[in-house]
Specification:
Blueprint (H helix, E strand, L loop, with lengths): L2 E2 L5 E9 L2 E10 L4 H13 L4 E12 L1 H16 L3 E5 L3 H10 L6 E3 L1
Parallel strand pairs: 3-4, 4-5, 5-6
Antiparallel strand pairs: 1-2, 2-3
Helix pairs in contact: 1-2
Length: about 110
């Protein structure tokens, strides 16, 4: 599955499911233009019954406040129902944004 947002260098590389877990793999720049795409993917994963959602950031080169907001919102929503959001393999550049924003200690990040 590959989806592109016309105004963004952001791509959902793939989405896979295993039981109650979903894995969403991303690439490119997660900014204001790409954030709605990620938001829709996270909502679809939750609606499919996933209570653990892993978001793979191994190929994400940039994230801004709109991307951070989507992640915080998903984290809160999943946590409120006993689920969890896992951010996996963030690049150094993206990890630096998580750290500077204070979210590295709030979000569940697997390096």
């Amino acid at each position: 599955m590959e989806r592109d947002h016309a105004d963004s260098d952001f791509t959902v590389v793939g989405v896979s499911y295993s039981g109650s877990e979903a894995v969403i793999r991303l690439a490119g720049e997660l900014d204001l233009a790409g954030a709605p795409v990620l938001h829709a993917c996270l909502l679809n994963a939750a609606a499919s019954g996933a209570d653990t959602i892993e978001v793979g950031f191994g190929r994400v080169t940039y994230i801004d406040s709109s991307g951070l907001g989507i992640l915080v919102s998903a984290h809160k929503r999943l946590q409120s129902t006993g689920g969890s959001l896992v951010i996996s393999q963030p690049t150094e550049r993206v990890m630096r944004v998580f750290t500077i924003s204070g979210l590295s200690s709030y979000l569940n990040i697997r390096r």
